[in-house]
Every structure is written in C-alpha cells, then in structure tokens.
Design goal:
single chain; 212 residues; mainly alpha; two-stranded antiparallel sheet; 2 strands; 56% helix; 10% strand
Length: 212
C-alpha cells in the first residue's frame, strides 16, 4: 500500500510542479504594474478656430486697384499708405514733367523744321532773334525731344510697376494675415515605451507631438 502511494506521488509530482510554476508565472505577470502613458507620448492639440475670410485678399487687391493705398487701409497697414502714395505720386510727377518738356521740344523742333523762328528756344537768352543763330540748334531740339521722350516712357513704366506692386502687396498681406503664426506652434519628436496588456510585452517607438 505504501509503495503504491509513493509511486502515485512520484507520477503526479512533475505535473504538480509544472502547474505551480505556471501559477507563479501568471501571478508574477499579474503583479507587474502596467506602464502608464505619459503626456510625452500623447499627441495633444488645442484647436482654436479662427475666422477666415476667403474674399479678403480679393477685396484688398480690388481696393488698391481702385485707389492706391486703400487696400493697405483695408488690411490695417496704415504705415504703408504714405509709402504707396508717395512712390506712385513721384512716378506720376516724373511722367508729367518729362512729358511737358517732350511736348515743348517737339513743338519747337517741328516749327523750326517748317522754317519758323518764333519758338521759345530760339532766343532763350533774350539777346534778340538773329536769323541763323538760335540759342538751341535744330539738333539740340531733336536730342532734347528724344531724351525727354525716353525719360517719360521710363517714368511711366516705373509708375505702372509701382501701381501693380501696390495691388500685389495688398493681396499678399491679406493672405498672410490669416495664417496661424502663433508662438504656441511646435513640433517635437520623442521616443516612447508602451506596455501591451494583451501580449505582455513592451512596445517601443517614436512619438510625434504637435502643438497648435
């Protein structure tokens, strides 16, 4: 009888030992506290809705096209208004100044070629009209006409370029005003460790944190 009990114990001892080891593993596994997720691995973002007017750039460009500087007023960039008006005003003045001189030299040159000696450049010094000895020769009148015509065209080109730049500035400025350029914007990349409760293994990776 005692031999039989000893034999039975020897047969069941390995089985009981293996069951005990598995139970210890399970209890040890259950006793491991899960690794809590920290804020470093959670993408957090605070969205603040900002009202966007899609027609603002078009309106600013239209206002600047109607009246230079008005688009800058619409964008509340008041310090740009004197610059815009001054730049375009100087261009218009240069065009008018050179155009007036071009017309004067051209008129005098045409009359001189027609045989008249009563143009304003014949006796500039007031020494009296002496036939054949004008103060401005025919070639000088022609050179002056061509010079002021060239300067007039250049002034016109620069004025139109400044006018177009005024429109582009108002349009681009209206676009940039609606971009989110807050100081809270940020991008951070960090490694993270996460515990998988199903598999019982830790997961490694990289966390992308975006602040906006």
């Amino acid at each position: 009888m005692s031999k039989t009990l000893v034999l039975i114990c020897l047969l069941f001892f390995p089985v009981l030992f293996s069951v005990a080891q598995e139970g210890q593993k399970e209890s040890a596994k259950d006793s491991v506290p899960p690794i809590a997720k920290t804020q470093d691995i959670i993408v957090e973002g605070k969205v603040e809705k900002k009202r966007i007017n899609p027609l603002a750039p078009s309106r600013a460009a239209f206002y600047s096209a109607v009246l230079p500087g008005l688009g800058q007023v619409y964008n509340k960039r008041y310090w740009k208004v004197p610059i815009v008006i001054g730049a375009i005003g100087v261009g218009i003045y240069a065009y008018k100044y050179n155009n007036d001189l071009y017309i004067r030299f051209r008129t005098a040159f045409k009359r001189r070629r027609a045989g008249f000696t009563d143009d304003e450049f014949y006796d500039v010094n007031g020494s009296g009209i002496v036939p054949g000895s004008p103060d401005f020769s025919d070639s000088a009148l022609q050179d002056g006409q061509e010079r002021y015509q060239r300067d007039r065209d250049l002034a016109l080109f620069i004025t139109l370029a400044l006018y177009a730049l005024n429109i582009v500035d108002a349009n681009v400025d209206a676009h940039l005003k609606q971009f989110n350029v807050d100081d809270d914007l940020g991008l951070d990349i960090k490694p993270y460790l996460e515990y998988n409760p199903i598999m019982g293994d830790p997961n490694y990776g990289v966390a992308l944190t975006i602040k906006f």
